[in-house]
Amino acid sequence: MPTILYQDSLLLVVNKPAAMPAQADKTGNPSVLEWAEAECGQALHPVHRLDRPSSGVLLLAKTKEAMTLLQQQFQTHSIEKTYLAVVATAPPDSEGTLVHFLQKNSAKNRAFAFADDRPGAQRAELHYRLLGSSERYHLLEIRLITGRHHQIRAQLSAIGCPIKGDVKYGARRGNRDRSIHLHAWKIAFEHPGSGEWMTFVAEVPEGDAVWGAFEGHTRPTT
Question: Could you confirm whether 51 is annotated as catalytic?
Answer without folding.
Answer: yes
